[in-house]
Amino acid sequence: MASPFYNRYIPPQAKSPDLSDPSRPTKKRKKSKSAPPISSQQTKPREKSPEIAALNCYNDGDAQVGSIGNEAVDHHVAIRNRHKSMLDKYDKAAKKSAELADERTVAAEDDEGERQEDAIDVEEHGLEPLPQPAPAKEDRKISAFSALPEWLQAPKLVKSTDTVPFEELSLRRDTLTALGKKGYSAAFAIQSAVLPMLLPGPKQHSGDICISAATGSGKTLAYTLPMVQSLREKPVTRLRGLIVVPTRELVNQVRESLDLCSAGSGLKIATAVGSKPLKEEQELLVEKGQRYDPEAYKAEQEKEIDEDEELMDWDFDKKFGSNDYLELFYNHVVVYTSRIDILICTPGRLVEHIQSTTGFTLEHVQWLVIDEADRLLDESFQQWIDVVLPGLEYVRPPDALHPSRSNTSHLFRRREVRKIILSATMTRDISKLMTLNLKRPKFVVLEGGSQKLANEEEDSPIADEGGRVEVPSTLKEYGVPISEHSTQDKPLYLIELLETKSNPPVSKRRRSSTIPADKSEASDSDTSSDSDDGSQNSDLLSKSDRISNLAAAGADPTSHGTLVFTESNEQAVRLARLLALLRPSWQIGTLTKSTAGSSGRKTLAAFRKRKLSILIASDRASRGLDIPDLAQVVNYDMPKSATSYVHRVGRTARAGKAGEAITLVLHNQGKWFWKDRSGIVKSDVLVRGPDKRVGRRNLAINMSEEERGNYEKALQTLGEEANG
Ligand SMILES: Nc1ncnc2c1ncn2[C@@H]1O[C@H](COP(=O)(O)OP(=O)(O)OP(=O)(O)O)[C@@H](O)[C@H]1O
């Protein structure tokens, strides 16, 4: 039988695509017309080697065997036997090779088929990455990964342009008249959004409200107006409105707003800040009287008092002022009634009254306002909440009003108080907000001109979780770099600024003894300098340039005064003294912790009335203070955070008016101020309008020998005074 080996052609091995071949066109996958498909290549007969030819000759010669002699046949058989094993092996190898070639051909055909399909609609590309579709935009409003509850994640957003006339806000006619007299015709955006939520009507929200709105956006009226309108109808005087703010100055300011809204209402409003002796304040808050009540009197007499324990716990002088029991008529008991409807206070003083003023109770409180809430929820402040909140959660039965009958706590009934929580830098720290035990809370956020972050890059998680902070859109911001070699001249930079600003608070005539005017002011240039401290970038302008720059800055002729912030009370006092030594004619005031109280109030009033042109203050003045038409804020010392910066600079550019904020930037603060995401210019949390930038204002201090001598003498005097 003929061996298949002899009868078949072994096809030449089709060259399969070598995947490891770097020359293989990996990207250029378009079908090449010149290269025929591998499957269609002709398989040519393999050339027979001489050896195979010889073997075939044996095979082919089967038919001839008979004609050849036996000897010859034997010879052939011998040869064939001798080569049989070798031929078998060859046969097997050829068979395997043929199978392999078949497989490769099939694979090559499949591959080519795919290539042809691809070639139909695939464009030719180089080695550059293929363009990818833009990633789908994430809806940042509600994130499945955020730990925030939904009410914080999806706030009610208020556009700064959405304002309505007060007439449309269901306010009483006399309130409208009072607002009109003050020159307020339309409600600001945050007021337009919040008032309907707090006043009776279809949009009223029956829960608590957290408000985040820029400095100077009018948050105070947003709660004083509805609170007054709601409480004025009540016939009996009881403490029903409680407003807590962090500083005495703010207490007085809120008082002014309440006085405006409550004119003619008969509501009694008081403040508690610790500026008066406690006893005096107690008498203002609570009235002591007696009531005929034989039953209660008898119970009182029979009540067993563990005197030792009571005496240890009670401070009679503080608690009662005088001995109540001796003054009592027969069959009468002591009763305390509130003298006020609304109390505005600092948290420390509030706690003192809760703990020490007999008859002072929060049980009738219906409105609790916490202004500058992020500050008041800070760890350093927070303990007051633990004292205040329990007093707001329950109503005591009438008997429990008397201190000796406080064992009726099991009769207490749960009640609801409307809570309004506000700040320009409202926290979204849920652990802090939870301490307030909010009910059905709603988060209202005032959007500014832009919701873009200052760094104009992707939204950051910090901003999402911590809340963004709007810089007033009418504010112009600048940084003044102070080089390493000029650090000791920092007070002179301040003087230079004050004397050259657009609406100088002080006469420039005095400058003849200090700095040549031509070299003092420089451009309001962009933040483009590479130098962190700007010391390499003193591109001084000519005098005419300076004047045109200042005119372009749009100085508001009605604005007035400069508020200078220092890092501490001591620094404020020292700086004020140094300025007084160097510029004795300037009208300078200080507002620090030590000047709080009546002297601080007088200083602030004088500044507001323009009797002072410069107010030097510590950070206690950074929150909430409203100085209408303040022209300028100067951060003499760098604020500690972007939040602190926002509150400081927010003392100007309020209520839509123009304002300017200038920060002195020492060389070692430059990186943080200009470049860090935790800093000011590229901040992760500050939001500025689309074309708002922090300008770089370069100043140069050029002093004569005499001026330098005066400066050093003033520093020496300051040092001597400090050392006593
Ligand atoms: N509807 C209004 N029309 C005109 N002026 C208003 C109106 N509402 C408030 N103002 C004025 O705007 C200024 C800023 O208001 P307010 O002090 O309430 O701001 P704020 O949002 O509490 O600021 P901050 O966060 O700094 O405490 C005040 O001088 C206030 O009298």
Textual characterization of the structure:
By secondary structure, the chain is α/β, with parallel strands linked by helices. It is 37% helix and 14% strand. The strands form six sheets. It has an eight-stranded parallel β-sheet, with helices on both faces. Strands 17-24-16-22-21-18-20-19 form an eight-stranded mixed β-sheet, with helices on both faces. Helix 23 links the parallel strand 21 and strand 22 (659-666). Helix 6 (189-198) packs parallel to helix 7 and helix 7 packs across helix 8. The chain is extended. Mean pLDDT is 75; it is low at 1-68, 106-122, 137-141, 316-326, 450-466 and 502-555. The site of adenosine-5'-triphosphate has 19 residues, from helix 7.
Question: What topology emerges from the helices and strands here?
Answer:
Elements: H1 4-7, H2 50-60, H3 70-121, H4 150-153, E1 156-159, E2 164-165, H5 173-182, E3 186-187, H6 189-198, E4 209-212, H7 219-231, E5 241-244, H8 248-262, E6 269-272, H9 278-285, E7 286-292, H10 294-302, H11 307-313, H12 316-320, H13 324-327, E8 332-338, E9 342-345, H14 347-356, E10 367-370, H15 373-376, H16 383-393, E11 394-395, E12 413-414, E13 418-423, H17 430-434, E14 442-447, H18 461-466, E15 469-470, E16 475-482, H19 490-500, E17 524-525, H20 543-552, E18 560-565, H21 569-582, E19 588-591, H22 598-608, E20 614-617, E21 630-635, H23 642-649, E22 659-666, H24 670-675, E23 686-687, E24 694-697, H25 705-722
Parallel strand pairs: 1-14, 4-13, 4-14, 5-9, 5-10, 6-9, 10-13, 15-23, 16-22, 16-24, 18-20, 18-21, 19-20, 21-22
Antiparallel strand pairs: 2-3, 7-8, 11-12, 17-24
Residues 184, 187-188, 191, 213, 215-221, 424, 624, 626, 628, 650, 654-655 line the site of adenosine-5'-triphosphate.
